[in-house]
Design brief:
Blueprint (H helix, E strand, L loop, with lengths): L1 H16 L10 H13 L10 E6 H8 L6 H4 L5 E5 L8 E5 L7 E5 L2 E2 L16 H4 E8 L13 E7 L7 E9 L3 E9 L7 E12 L8 E13 L3 E15 L14 H6 L10 E5 L5 E5 L12 E15 L5 E24 H5 L12 E24 L3 E23 L2 H7 L6 E23 L3 E25 L5 E25 L2 E12 L3 H5 L10 E13 L3 E22 L5 E23 L2 E14 L2 E5 L2 E5 L2 E2 L6 E11 L2 E10 L2 E2 L9 E2 L2 E13 L7 E9 L7 E11 L2 E10 L4 E9 L1
Amino acid sequence: MKRINQVAMAVVCTLCAQNALAQKDVDTVKVRQLNEVVVKAVRAQKNAPFAVANIEKSELKDFSTTGRELPYLFSRTPGIISWSENGIGTGTTYLRMRGAAGSRINVTLDGVALNSPEDQQVFWANMNSYAALLGSVQIQRGVGASTNGDGAFGGSISLATQAPQVKPFAELTGSYGTYNTYNTGASFSTGLLFNHLIFDGAYHETATDGFVDGTRGRSGSYYGGLTWLGDNFQIRYKNIGNFEKTGQAWNYITGPEGTESYKQIYEMGLGRSNTLLGNYDKDENGNYKLTPFTYRDGTPWDRTTDNFYQNHNILSATWQPSEHWTHNAALHYTYGRGYYKDLKVKKSLAEKFGINERNDAGKFIKSDAVRLKGLTQNAYGLVYNVNYKDEEWDVTGGVNLQQFRGSHWGYLTYIKDEALEQKYFDNHGKYKYYDSDARKDDYSAFVKAAYTFLDNWNVFADLQYRHVGYKTDGINDKFVMGSDGNYYAQRLDVDDDFNFFNPKAGVSYTNGGHKAYASVSLANREPERNNYTDNGNYPYPKKEQVTDYELGYQYTGNNWHAGANFYYMAYDNQIAQTGQTSDIGEALTTNIKDSYRMGVELTAGWAPLSWMSVEGNAALSQNKIKDFDEYLGDHVNHYDKSTLAYSPSAILNGFMDFHYQGFNATWHTNFVSKQYVDNSESSERQLPSFSQTDINMSYTINLKGCGLKSVKLGLDLNNIFDRHYAVMGYDWGWYEGDTRKSYLGYVPAAGFTMMGNITLRF
């Protein structure tokens, strides 16, 4: 609340200063154009031969009051599914695009790579309020155009902060809903000061109890910016920070032994039971209940939490010296630090933490222990882009230089065996059991050009070179048995370099409302940190490669539009888990030689009346491994052509939008077909199809003469038919004799939820 009060004071000061400071007329179109230059290099050029979806500022603003993380907005576009561990869309949230996981989706903010360099993920848990800070989002499905940072194997997402506001304003928002979920925020701009300077800022946060037990959390973001506007240039500094303390449920919802589906678990009254909090026991009536874990004094274990703070600093200069030329350069630095805290119950302290203590029988001691596993990150770099554009040519060149330095560390902060705690803990009340350092250098350069000829034809070429160097050393959090029978920490000594050449080419034809295009793109990608550390002494995976073929047609009429995009993505050496485990039980990753994703993405919309429109999209696909071996202990199962895990063959979205004067309402129904939780394509290890419907309503009242410009009231009704289903899941597999056994965990969606909101604009 202290930070909210500080922002509120800034808002009041802004309002008081509005009439006291000199203003002048500014070309707002020019300001917006200069702001678009910042992201031009990583976005598809006009008539580019790729599958693209654009999300505008108005939709982002409406979404920002829901408290949900951005992947839930992205999943309204073709081929994307999203889910959160707490079941309601806040906190720890993930997405997949064309079946590819988050580490294979490139994300940039104002052209600066957001993916964490080592694990190549974007952690959306503390970015719920970015929607209020953004001016636009572009989603490119497939390889798309060259971008900065990690390779786009499923797609790329370009986030652009909104252009500086030359007129002063202030805005306050508040939302409250089911499971004590709230979202609150404030934003302001001083408008133009001293004919050149703009100062703006924002703060937003969300908190919830969560649908799943133990997922209570609070997260948020803040922004502060200074912009200097000249006649044909702007200099802008942005400081954007995120924070979160989120309850975790990464074991997902697992039922007692013998349960076979989430539906069965829910009907047993255990649909919210988080096994990170306790174990299943039977009550006096023979019904299962979750008995909480406890400390040695009997105090219940509260919850497993993820705690992270991140701060982005971007200093950019944009210059347009002439009608045809633009330049953009940005220096950036990101600092991140965080940890997760969890309880390990009755684990061997030797195998898990290298504490080689034995009992009187000569066995390694087992005990409960609380661990903190954390990291510190520093990423800094330079981005430079130059663009030339005339009636025929649109040429962009760019350079991205980024260095990453990080450390990983782990502590025990509690051991239930008090004698061992006293023996091993230091004066600070903890025991460090691993520590390692890492560095990653990522340098790339590209040039892409589009040439228009014969008025209607456009050819496109894009060439990118990327160098990646990754090193990590120190003590890992894995322990192996030595020759003396004791456990010792695995030593890390990784030093790998990659050089990638990523060419792309395509052609498009436009005539009136018609557009047709075709393209072929090649992308390469390096392994993630876990591909090295979890494989231990086993061979590391090699680089992955994908060749993406796209073919599309779109038509836009007076009151309707339709389009189809066909794609075929051929993967070479895709990295995947095959069921093999190391000698300490960690899942190994290896390269699968041949796999592919192919499908069609359909879009359509019709506005028969001025106050009503209907839209829809569909992603229909096949996702196959051509030759796959699954390893479970001593058993090897061969599949000639199996379906890739987590790749539904159909994802559908339908919308009806009603708008009259200040009233807006949207009906959204989505459908996701069945998906498998491993690569064996077994009906016993699949998630059933699901569908749900949301309704979003708002009413805006415009006011004059009282300092308050508008009041907007909103109501979000989610999953209105109260359906309970699993959005995501995973499988443990093993053999008993010749019988394949499975134990599934599920990520559930909450039933019906609602949230009301109010926005005041001054």
